[in-house]
Amino acid sequence: MTKLHSLAPVLLLVLAPAAALADDYRFEIRGSFDSHMPEDSDSSFDINVATLGGTWYFKPVSTNDVPLAEAAYLGRASFLSGGLKLTDFLDTTLNGQNVKVGYYIPGTMFYAAVGAFHDEDVIYASQALTIKDDFTGWFGTLGIAPVDGLLVTTQFREEGYDPNITARYVGKLPNNHFYAGSVSIVDMGYGGISDTTYGIDFDYYFDDSTSVGVGFDSGIRPDSSGHYVGGSDRLELRAEKFFSKKWAAGVSAYTSDFDDGFGVHVTWRH
Asked: What DSSP designation does 11 have?
């Protein structure tokens, strides 16, 4: 018993750093399911998308005193990510894969990312025949982070560059609750005619584990793989809850001029 008492202070000193790092994480896995239902169409035209993605961070990500969902963003954590996608459309399964690396250059305000993707798409469909094609490409992002919580980026694709900019900021309100807001603008040209669209997003964190958010897009917008998606006004509502520092679940629903949809996702960290 005396030996145990004498070892107690030593064990505390050894375990204290481990306890402090226990809530940090190095990688995360996210799975999602989304269903898109076009208006004025029967269920055979519904599009169901299942994804599974993983992200590995170059250094452990601290979750101290920040919203769990924003820990990597606020910590300017460089990363390597990859994902798989299965899309069910017109009784046809389409496959997709992507990989991406994002890096905050040490000692500077600069951020850069580059990635590649492989996707399949339906190019012709009838009651008797469905033809699909596959395509591969690369995409990239350049950005600056001049102050804590702010990141301003622009995306480019293998097909070319359409002027676009996204500014995202995560800050704290006077009640000590966090929020995240972003604005994006894309100027695309169709046959020499310029079409400028924009998007606005806002998320409010009730505490470090629970958030609700709303987003609006006026038309076409770039996604995380450099694709342009959308094409009509779209309003989205979403919510996410971390049930522990290791896993979370979220839901979303949207409506647009052409379709409606919903999504669910689960995230696990270690």
From this structure: H
Structural domain spans, the chain: 24-269
pTM of the predicted model as reported, rounded to 2 decimal places: 0.86
DSSP assignment string, 217-270: E-S-EE-TTS-EE--S-EEEEEEEEESSSSEEEEEEEEEESSEEEEEEEEEEE-
Domain 24-269 has CATH 2.40.160.40: yes
Query: Rounded to 5 degrees, what angle do the CA atoms 96, 212, 244 make?
Result: 80
pLDDT digit of tens for each residue in the chain (270 aa)? 434 344 334 333 444 444 444 579 999 999 999 999 988 777 778 899 999 999 999 999 999 999 999 999 999 999 999 999 999 988 888 999 999 999 999 999 999 999 999 998 877 766 666 777 888 999 999 999 999 999 999 999 998 898 999 999 999 999 999 999 999 999 876 555 557 889 999 999 999 999 999 999 987 665 655 566 656 789 999 999 999 999 999 999 999 988 899 999 999 999
Residues 250/236, Cβ–Cβ less than 8 Å:
no
